[in-house]
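mind reviewing this fold:
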Amino acid sequence: MTRPLGAQISHMLKDRGVDVIFGIPGVHNQEMYRGIEEAGITHVLARHEQGAGFMADGYARATGRFGVCYLITGPGLLNALTPLGQAYSDNVSVLAICSCLDNTVRRKGQLHQMKDQEAAAAAVCDWSETADDAATAYHLVDRALRAFWYGGDRRPKAIHVPIEVLKSHAGPVGRGRTGESRQLPDPTNVMYLRTRLRKARKPLLILGGGAVDLALPWGDRDGTPVADLMARLNCASFCTFAGRGILPRDGDLHFGPYLTRASSADVVGQADLVIAIGTQLAEVDLWREDLGHRHDAMIRVDTSDEVLNTQNGCAFNIKVDARSFVRALLDGWDGAALMNDWDEGEVHRARARWRAEVDAEFPNVLPVMDALRAAMPADAMIYSDMTQFAYAAKECWDMPRAGHWHHPSGFGTLGYALPAAIGGAVARQGAPTACIIGDYGFQYTVAELGTAVELGLPLPIILWDNGKLGAIEDSMIAAQIAPNSVIQRNPDFLALAKAYGAEAVEPATLDDIAPALEAAFKTRGPTVIRLTPALSA
């Protein structure tokens, strides 16, 4: 049957596996809302388009698939550029479908008019295209989903549809393909790496967020790819912040997520072979220009040409996804596990030294973090914000599961954690999801508390309240700048949460954190748990 195109797009998305859309309806995009309920899709009403974009991001990270947001012409899209930029930076699959004006050349002064909406979105998306007819709209949706599903560029896409085109009647679109694809590495590359491994005396593995699939069961054999890989290589390892949980946190040769510690460069420099899998080795992974490795010792494994051609020099690139790479490397492996010259004692001493550095850099954080970590369910998924608590925790909170801590790396926006955690909680109905956010970042997107209350999400919001922009203050002092505008007047956060209809609590001691968290996971609706440095002072 024919329907207005706006309705057909919702039916098309449902047919291709979309169950949830995040957004805010308006006069310009109301045609996109005509078919949502009829298609059987749940719509989550955000309080701001920025929140809708972050929710779609959080949903995508929680599911490992993609998130969808519906946006309105002009300011609605612009409000969502920050979350789209964050998704681009972190390689997260978000599809933004936006209404747009039919004619901006002949007609001026229209509601929501801007110079070039398509170009604005292009600045923070993999691509941004306008559909002037139904066939083009269908093509663009499938083009985006094919990239998300079949190993293309997973970064966000923006589709703009003129208002009159959304109103026009269109026929249904056929069913789309679903599934996943894997790339097969060149056998010559695999043989080359095996040869290098057998000759290496100090091989080092670095795992990033692009390698989280290595922690999932094979499906056709016992164990996991990462367990089989480490049993064969018997090498030392690091992980990036996004790669936490892939390797067992108590591994004898695992240095952990401490690549940002300056002296980790000396450790990396000892390696005669470095294999980096699924990591950009970007500034936010290292906080220095160079990893510290010998360039002739580096082999990089990734699916992204952009990553493989960054300035972090290497001897050899292998373009392939992590699971396919490990399968090819291990299939037909002959011989026992490799031997190496790494010292387990050195690894343990380095981890202890680096934790002490973090403790000195972020005083009063680690005791609170340890209490919170001990109380957190093993299967909890955590969304954190740009706050000192998260900066310390990313280094010292060893995750028991891969892909269960999400942080706004790269773009580094404040206000990410609350709406992203809402998106994650929507995706993980019945599974524990938590938000860790600072007092300043919380106020960026605090209105989304209304959405969490409306949905009845049992979402603990761990609010680290130090009453200032602590990281900025420290940076100014380090640069010999008198701290300026780093201390703000905060509201009564507990009263504010209750005004939205949320629960609110402030533990008086470290021992009070566990029962507060347990109660929050059992409450119908969000709970703000205010923590301060005074807890461990």
The chain is about 40% helix and 15% strand.
